């Protein structure tokens, strides 16, 4: 719950979508947190190649993806779902674990893991 509180605090009042990544080691300890991509009011573009470069650079074993929905909806878009599935598939081939993808909004949070999408 502390992690979710922190993520809400860091992303809640942003006017644009921000895509953040938590890079974790083999013990699921935080190595690095970074805002990788920024977008518009209702979308951000994620470049998977750049994401993988960062993961390898930090020697991370697992990641948690996080982005905000400034408009307030917690419902993942079709693009959110497609991205998550694509990333998971690619990560499996290079032995990186996608632990979760979390959407933050003023209404709370949505976990792709808890929601059964991941």
Structure description:
The protein is an alpha+beta fold. The protein has helices spanning 2-11, 48-57, 78-93; strands at 18-24, 30-38, 62-68, 97-105, 108-111. A five-stranded mixed beta sheet has the order 2-1-3-4-5, sandwiched between helices. α3 links the parallel β3 and β4 (97-105). It is globular. The model has no long low-confidence stretch (mean pLDDT 88).
Describe the structure concisely.
This protein has helices spanning 2-11, 48-57, 78-93, and strands at 18-24, 30-38, 62-68, 97-105, 108-111.
Q: Can you give keywords for this protein?
A:
118 residues, alpha+beta, Cytidine Deaminase, domain 2, five-stranded mixed beta sheet, 3 helices, 5 strands, 31% strand, globular
Structural class: alpha+beta
What is the CATH class name? Answer: Alpha Beta
The end-to-end span amounts to: 19 Å
Q: What is the 3D form?
A: globular
Question: CATH-wise, what's the superfamily?
Answer: Cytidine Deaminase, domain 2
Q: If you average the pLDDT, what whole number results?
A: 88
List SSEs in N-to-C order.
HEEHEHEE
Strands of the biggest beta sheet: in what spatial order?
2-1-3-4-5
Show unreliable segments: none
Helix content: 25-40%
